[in-house]
């Protein structure tokens, strides 16, 4: 179960920060339920090995590392109590994650006005929650969605928006500057929010934020609190995942003097972000420290 889930996360069969986190939590839950050990030490060793396997799959995704740490943390001093505690941690995390997305949609949609054209990038359940809630509330909105190359996550976004009946326009990533004047609001998700409020998200996000800033268009990030990074509070840098060149150019080996770069994420400075909508409220990026300290707590760094 652990190896299967890890491979699905690594290959992006399971994609999206929230889905990755919930999948990892469920995998750890199922793993400990069937784990056949006779001592707490064996349980602890096996759990750590399983957690490490999951953590190695997507190095940038703080949602994954936070989920794994939250689930695997236990205080029980006997085997069966520890097993029950990890299972309860996993189920609590999954439930709270799903509720967080719903709450973000409720909070973020209040900043959407009737008649708005919304630009979104990649495929984010939190960003979609904001857009869909505004639609359900009767606001007449339209969406411009990027393809989000090279994995084309934007195709998942337009499929979902079409299913719920929201008029949508699909554009290539490089067309953002050409359409930004038609946009009233940018809404994106998040893979990581750092201690200073900067955003690590799908590659191309920072360019969109720059265009929005130049055009004076509001830029909203939708992020569950478990996407905030406690490690950045201690000065650690977020590792930007580099994926394989075959995602960009399938026959790259035919070229003798070519190097293909495929960073999966980029960093948007907090100065370009107007608001971060979380399940505990809409905050300016400068308040990210408070989320890390008050809502995640210091223990998650251990």
Automatic annotation (TrEMBL):
Catalyzed reaction equations: alpha-D-ribose 1,5-bisphosphate = D-ribulose 1,5-bisphosphate
Active-site positions on this chain: 122 (proton acceptor), 191 (proton donor)
GO annotation, biological process: L-methionine salvage from methylthioadenosine; pentose catabolic process
InterPro entries, A to Z: IF-2B-related (IPR000649), IF_2B-like_C (IPR042529), Initiation_fac_2B_a/b/d (IPR011559), M1Pi_N (IPR027363), NagB/RpiA_transferase-like (IPR037171), R15Pi (IPR005250)
GO MF, any single term: ribose 1,5-bisphosphate isomerase activity
Enzyme category, top tier: isomerase
EC number per UniProt: 5.3.1.29
Keyword Cytoplasm found: no
UniProtKB keywords: Carbohydrate metabolism, Isomerase
A Pfam cross-reference name: IF-2B
Residues that hold substrate according to the record: 15-18, 58, 201-202, 227
Family classification: Belongs to the eIF-2B alpha/beta/delta subunits family. R15P isomerase subfamily.
The protein's role, per its UniProt record: Catalyzes the isomerization of ribose 1,5-bisphosphate (R15P) to ribulose 1,5-bisphosphate (RuBP), the CO(2) acceptor and substrate for RubisCO. Functions in an archaeal AMP degradation pathway, together with AMP phosphorylase and RubisCO.
Note: Reaction proceeds via a cis-phosphoenolate intermediate.
HAMAP family found in the cross-reference section: R15P_isomerase
Name recorded for this polypeptide: Ribose 1,5-bisphosphate isomerase
Organism of derivation: Methanothrix thermoacetophila (strain DSM 6194 / JCM 14653 / NBRC 101360 / PT) (Methanosaeta thermophila)
